[in-house]
């Protein structure tokens, strides 16, 4: 029996457990959404605002791209990698058979969320907490990951699927130019989302006993 059916938990916890268990990576995504763009904006805005950051630095920056703005990011990725093919840095066959179809599939989705860290916003914290200075960037990435996960679950909760991509730094310059991104924002992830277009295969798990322990129970 799955954890989500476990008796002791209240309704909210059961919903949360169910969402965490059902969230998966979806590559085939349709260009439609069961919820409005306003509601999407509310969900992403909520994650951006409420996810914790080390020392409350609020270092994550998030850009929601919909419709033509969403397709632009994947056209950028295609043209940048096409450039690499022409320069001989990426094999043509690999691009044509593998990379391009994958990027076209992202383009066919409903939207893309760009996640950045504003590294300039961390400078004062690095000075103030000098002994942790070398950890601050890592903490900022951890906070970004928390935002990504909350967004992923929020989308899942509303019937959307998503995948997390990393075409940075290849696309950074074009992205910055296209959406007027401040130079201190560094692109760290791209989440593509839309209505799931296919059933996802079961995932295999390592024995949880090797990964989780409890003492003192
Ligand atoms: C931090 C992180 C980075 C990831 N980066 C990528 C990526 O660049 N491209 C990709 O296709 N999937 C990426 N994934 C998705 C993982 O491959 C996927 O989550 C994992 O295989 C488990 O599958 P599931 O999401 O269906 O549970 C990433 C996931 C995480 C958590």
From TrEMBL:
GO terms for biological process: cellular response to oxidative stress. One of its GO terms (cellular component) is nucleus. Pfam families: Nitroreductase. It is found in: Cytoplasm; Nucleus. Keywords: Cytoplasm, Nucleus, Oxidoreductase. Belongs to the nitroreductase family. This is Nitroreductase. One of its GO terms (molecular function) is oxidoreductase activity.
